[in-house]
Amino acid sequence: MTVGVVFPESPAERAGLRPGDGIVAIDGRKLESLCPFYESIIVGQKDVAELTVEDESSPSGVRQLKLALRDALSPPLRITRLERVLDLPMGYFPLGFLIVGMAVLLLRPDDPNAWLLALFCGGFIAGGPLLEGAIPLHLRGLAVSYKLVMAWCAEAFFYWFFAVFPAPSPLDRKLPWLKYAFLGAALITTVPMGFRCLLAGGALPLYLDTHWPGWATLTWALTGQSGLPVPASYGWPIFFGFFLGSISLGLASLISNSFLAADARIRRKAHVMLWGTVVSVTPTVLALAATMIGGFGVVPVAVWEASILLLSFVWPLSFAYAVVKHRVLEIPVLLKRSARYVLVQRGYFVFLFAGAATAIALFTHTISRFFPEGTNIGMALSAVFGIVLVWASAPMVKRGTEGIDRAFFRSAYDARMILQDLAEKTRTVTDRHELVRLLELQIQGALHPKSLACYLEDGAGSLGAETIALPPGSDTIPATLPLLSDLAHRGRAWDVPPAVSGEAEYFGPLAPECLVPILGRNGRLTGLLALGQRLSEEPYSGEDKHLLDSVAAQAGITLENIDLAQKMAERMEAERRIARDMEIARQVQVRLFPQKLPPLHTLEYVGRCIQAREVGGDYYDFLSLSAGRIGFVLADIVGKGIAGALLMANLQAAVRTQCAIASQDLPQFLKSVNQAFYESTDEGGYATLFFGDYQDSTCLMRFANCGHNPPFLVRSNGTAKRLTATATVLGLFDNWEPCICEVQIGAGDVLVIYTDGITEANNSACEEFGENRLLETIRASMTLPVPELVDAILAAALNFSAGEMRDDLTLVVARGR
Q1: What angle is formed at CA 331 by the lines to CA 325 and CA 335, rounded to 5 degrees?
Q2: Which end of the chain, N or C, is surrounded by fewer C-beta atoms within 10 Å?
């Protein structure tokens, strides 16, 4: 091993090593292979290594030196020269590639180009020097194998990246298999040795002397490309052949895309990467060339460190900018604008600082005349003056800074003002079409896109275009597109990446460049703004997207308010129609109750129904069966509201249709009514019914109680008789037989037929009105006229329940004369 450079004040210089010395043994072991070097220097834990160096002046031809591998006390770090300042980035030069590669991968995990860039950065990291002795023992094999494989694959990934990004290069279109060939060659060459190092737990297999054909050349290439100490061999043709071949073809692809691509956006991205490559790689290449021509020490260490700093940070950042940014500016425009802005802004602050310092100095010089020397009063007043001056000039500084920003970025300021005004105006919009027109007008004036379309939810699972005069084929977008799902998940303005540009075909000729989601409160996509390329060809800036997000958020709230107001209006209109229909139904049902009372000589009678809702299921009727004969009907239909009212009307129709046969054959009449009601109701629908056939000449009433509440017949002497059930309810059974009973109604006797709405009326203590209270009310009011007796019973039930009705109150009262 030949010594190249000996750094001043280093342990090597103190040990007596000189440039050009030949080391023939380490710790007494001859360097027949590099195993002694590996074991003592690379992974050895010794503090001192004994070197045997060739020396022609010595009788033995060699001299023994002791090299301190580790000093007991590390010298203090003295940052006194430029190379000392740059020593840290040089020692950690792959850090920039690591940070950039991981950041790009996190920002664009679904972009294949981001994965290619991350793999290239990972390979470049592997090209750094490997301090194997500083790695934990159980990780050395993994570190060395990773270094061997990825360092060679980095060149393959370098070519692959530039061959396909930002667009396939002419070389890749003609030879698409070439990128796979480079990667395959790298893997075939390195994976077996990497696996061997993994099993060996380090780089020892690389330093073993073997007589296999081509082993020395392969070892040289593997170790040299991986940044490991290189054993002597002639492997440089393989190393430089693969390295220069992949690098040259990758640069050729980059240059061809920079100047030959038909798309201006592709050329701009390639320009950014090409300039980044030139700026960051050229210093390192020149330093390497100078070193190879003039030898070690020709290039100062500070130049090496500055070159490596550019290489490790500027180069990957230029790639990351092209991958992450959907649109990039031309390099001259970007540099010119940034340089002018920085010079003017910094000059403005320098001018302000100089003016303030001059004013404070003049004030101090003037005020110090009035105070004796050696006092601090003048200094204190000067400090107060400085504070007041800074406070008073703050508004002027702010206006000046805004003026500079407005002068350099006038379009951005105008856009911000327009979009902020738009966010305020959207709060007062009450119509969807008005909102869309306002959005289009203000966004066009602020950002000047070549195309702009606004899509809103159409209720059919799609987004319908609200913009007038859109190109054919772009008026409807399926809401199930993965692109829209991803956009709703992101929840903010998004540059349409090339990886998903295939789904942009749904937008037709619009060719959107920026999509802005309009979300509801639950994160659901309710609308979409599709903005095409700007007329200035500049990309949408972060501030543009932030303001667009604010506008979209306000528009989403406005849309929800509009939809909510529309639904409320529709609901109010529906409730109004329902109320009107219910009122008509109530009037119709009222007409179904008897409007005239057939006259009787021996009986006075009245009926009344108070419905708990607009319509109900209680029914009473007075049927003229023949001269001097009246049929009393009171029924309670199961159910309330519309359903009960319909069944009530059905039962009334059946009763009135069949009443002609009631005077001749009352049981047959009731059986016919039951059959009709049974056939017209569903299972579970039924009705209770009381039917009484009263004959005026005999004061006799034949009746049938079909599961109804037992009416009360209160005699003139106060005794009461309950007319209990004689048959089951109507409508439940097909084969149904009624039983007929008779009762005599004398003068002064009171017959009260009622529904359960009266007896089951509840008070606040959940107590029912009950039959006993009803009977007491009847006895207490028997002397009243029949209409007033009806009012008294209804008033007693309502007062008991505090006016709250859960069921209809229906009552028929008759009194003998």
Answers
A1: 110
A2: C
